[in-house]
Amino acid sequence: TEIYTLSLHDALPIYHLLGSVKGSNCEFYRNGTWYGPEKAETHLRGKYESLDKNNLIVSAEDFVEKVATKSSWSGHPYQMKCGDQTAVSTHQWLNDELARYRGESENRKK
Hints:
Number of helices: 4
Radius of gyration: 14 Å
Low-confidence stretches: none
Distance between the termini: 38 Å
């Protein structure tokens, strides 16, 4: 039985971010290799679940900082590259997506 430490309200933005990575058609750079979006999502989800079990993730911002910014193994930053666009840090890509998600959520409440 899995025990989730975050409330649904706090977890939804994280699951949105994971889904955005998976559905992005962007490549994910980790430790010298580019991966497709499904492998990226699988890696980030596994890392998230490991930290969440130990109560180390309390918000979407924690997820971005502790899970999706850099390799815990090498310390090298993760990157996202979408089509012909210049690669950007995964930190920036996810924070931009989080801002879009929260803006859309606020608009739905109005």
